[in-house]
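thought: fold this chain, then report.
action: predict
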Amino acid sequence: MYIETLVAFDKLSKEHLHLFSFEQRNELHQKLAGLIALKDLSNAIIEWCEQYPNIDELLDLKITSEQRGAGGGGGDPVSPEESKKLQQEIINTIRVPSPQNKPSESESK
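observation:
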């Protein structure tokens, strides 16, 4: 179940990044930093999402669709390398500033 949560959240964050404020993404980035185990990553993401009902609801829908797509099973075992890659993908996605939070060129000069 942990991998399904991570895959679902990865897709959610890429498809609906606009739902995440800069502060929320920064908060989640700090929460995930240093976590490697799938269980810890998954639990941290679920805990964080529960604070934001709109994101939590979308994650629940994504997890349900992932389980249906995988036949509802636990999926294939994931290597530590694959786990680290998925963690990095999630962190990289939430780290990217959304267009409305990017400083304009005149502000950065």
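thought: worth noting. The chain is about 70% helix and 0% strand.
final: tokens above.
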